[in-house]
Amino acid sequence: MTIMNDKTREFVAMHRDEDVRELALKAKRVDGLDLPLALDQIAGWQIASKKLPQWASCEGIVYPPHISMEQCSSQFTAQYKSEITQTLLVPSATVYARVSDSAESDMQTAKSALHLSDSAESDTQEAKAGLRMSDSGESDTLVAKRAMVDLTGGFGVDFSYLARGFSQATYVERQRHLCELAEHNMAALGLDQARIVCGDGVEYLSQMDPVDFIYLDPARRDEHGSRTYAIEDCTPNVLELRDLLLAKSRFTLVKLSPMLDWRKAVVDFDGAVREVHIVATGNECKELLLVLGRPAQANARDSVDGAGSYRRLAPHVFCVNDDQRIDYDSAKYTQGLRIGGKPLPDAKRYLYEPNASIMKAGCFDLVEERFGVTQIGPSSHLFVSEQQIADFPGRGFAIEAVGSMNKKDTKRLLNGMKQANIAVRNFPLTAPQLRKKLKLADGGTVYLFGTTMQGGGHVLLRTSKI
After folding, report:
1. Contact (Cβ atoms closer than 8 angstroms) between residue 215 and residue 148
2. Proportion of the chain above pLDDT 90, given as a percent
3. pLDDT tens digits, 110-121
4. Is residue 217 a contact partner of residue 172, using CB atoms and an 8 Å limit?
5. If we measure between CA atoms, which residue out of 314, 316, 385, 394 comes closest to residue 357?
6. I want to staple 424 with a disulfide (CB 3.0 to 4.6 A). Which of 23, 26, 296, 450 is the partner?
7. Burial of 24 (0-12, 13-18, 19+ CB in 10 A)
8. Cβ neighbours of 301 (radius 10 Å)
9. Predicted confidence band of residue 131 (pLDDT cuts 50, 70, 90)
10. Maximum Cα–Cα distance for the chain, whole Å?
11. Is the peptide bond before 378 cis (omega within 30 degrees of 0)?
12. DSSP bridge pairs for 273
């Protein structure tokens, strides 16, 4: 299969660091050059160099049009999914294995051939060789003969990382042009254990034999192209597939919108959710991941009642923001701020703002208990301490002054200050309104927080970033 001819490939290699818009205007039209494809490849490589550096470093990758590149998973989130699968399938593991930063050492390729198929008939044939993953470069662990299926293949970024932990990996996608891209790119990445199936994921699921792991990333667009968030509005509707997924796999990983209420999603899956992963990078929530599993793979405390129904037990929750990671049993931490929580310390020297994954999880009582900090007030989601907390999962600030909103206090607090970075939490004014009221420009080294303390008092805190 030839996706890009030599003339187009040479043009891409020569111009891939240049501005795509300028190239579109000045590039000469020559015989054999597919300029629209070349421009897509240059734009795609430029996005991948930041978002998917391992892909960008691999010669031969062919990229889809711009919108697909913008919507695909980043290397960080794709690698994290791979870490989840390896931990799920190795029960004795206590921490996620680090995924290698070197694309060359991520694997030793299996010997089965990559091919395009329209049927599921031969998908369950065992792969003829194992896949090896390296953590340190000094020792490799032979991956047992495990099988996975990605029922919503798309551009294939998530699949390419998930497949590295399996000796047999099947990609299913309805759109043939994406299947052709996947066939080409998985070969370029050395994923010879991959199998490409062009077909409907739901139909494939109903026909296939059970596997160790299934991955789904339901499309969050309706028939009119408008964005959707609710699970039942996505395609496919994973709630309707719940029982079939549990019957067909040991574990299923479902990627959902970070806009969803994870607690409601857990209830909607009616006892099937084993883990919740809230994944952020750069302090921005990117993905909500749910691990579904049958009772046999659940924690020892899980069971099935006498009628054969699932017990509704709280899942384990993982909060991830780049290298900041905490996890907890959601059955223990459910209320956020406990009524009658501990009083504020007399000396409030440091202020802490949790990262985006913790804010999404709402595990504020866990943070208070685990890091020895105190919640500044109900619904404020800020914490204070007397001593500096070096490993707090979020941003830390040294408190320089605290004052009320009256003119005398604000004059003392600002002390001639002309600019500040302003944030508000549980405060009667928005950040722009507070900035206008205080007549401050944006920026500088001062961080000003408007919030509500225990007891209901509105305060301003002048801080500097730790």
Report:
1. yes
2. 62
3. 333 344 455 444
4. no
5. 394
6. 450
7. middle
8. 9
9. very low
10. 78
11. no
12. 292
